[in-house]
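Researcher: Here's a chain I'd like modeled. Treat it as a single chain, no partners, no ligands.
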Amino acid sequence: MEYFNKQSTDWRIAQCCQWHDKALAKRYNMGTTTKTYALKEGGKERVQSKALSNCNKLVDALENYFPHQPKNLRAFRISSELFPCYTLEFTNDWYDEIRDEIKDILSRAGKAAKEHSIRLSVHPGQYTVLASNKPDVVEKSIEDLEYHALYGDYMGLPAEEFSMNIHLQGLYGGKHEDGIKRFATHFPYLSDYAQGCLSVENEDKPNGYDIRHTLELAQRIPIRCTLDTHHYACHRMVETDKVKVGDKTVNRKVRDVVHITANSDYFKEAVKSWRGVRPLFHKSQSFPPEIQDYWMKPNAHSQTYWDEDLMANHVPMLEYADFDIEAKFKEVAVQGFYKFIKQEEQYSGEDIVLKRAA
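Model: Modeled as a single isolated chain. Structure tokens:
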């Protein structure tokens, strides 16, 4: 059962990891601790209490926050800090002591997600590189992926309906083909559940992995392609112009590129790679062009969405895919984009109706 997509009109835009509002942040944002503090006196108790507290905060959010949001906003990317220091070897026994309690709490979280149709996902960090050419990095990456896969497993969610997304990465000055081969070679070492929920995303750097590379990977192994539309644009921002600012001449990335649309073949193929499950893609925006601090960093996520042309460009995509909303002001950005979408529906006189890729 597609618990996050029970009705034909239930598209989703997802909040990522945290809350911006201070009161909501205090209640729902997860706590963490570092290896340094975990090794100090009282470290075991600190790690265990944070983990249990985080699990209870997730339940609280799924039982008491998201059910009061419009159905279109019932989607959430869970923080990677759910179990602090989990992949450190010396914490194994600590977590075994509270594993049954964690499973019980997360079972409640999964029940709430299903009952209220809340789509859930997770995004391991930049150091999880399954395409690495270094065996120790690959080993740690597999450990990290299995850790994040536990979220969905302990919540009782079908693997294909829980999204665990990473970047392809692993270029190391070589050819794109080499990294794709390494990723495909290392993929079978993951558990069945981790393989089933994993997706891979295109990168923002012009010399990194584009959507065409992730689609090539999907031809080799059964993996889903997460289209990041902002990364797609940044990947194509290869030109720089010089701008006179006072007595100085500074560089500025040229942002005038062709953005991907719902009619693009790359978009359609990325949707198909999810094999009948509604995709979860990524959307973000650069900071406004008048902010000089970000002239050479167009990949940086803005606080909220300000570019109405780009927002409008994504509305037709919602017929086929849900989106993680990557913005610094979290739920504020989600609600702002939602308001824009509803206005677009009102102006057009038509609601967004979900479709499946042909």
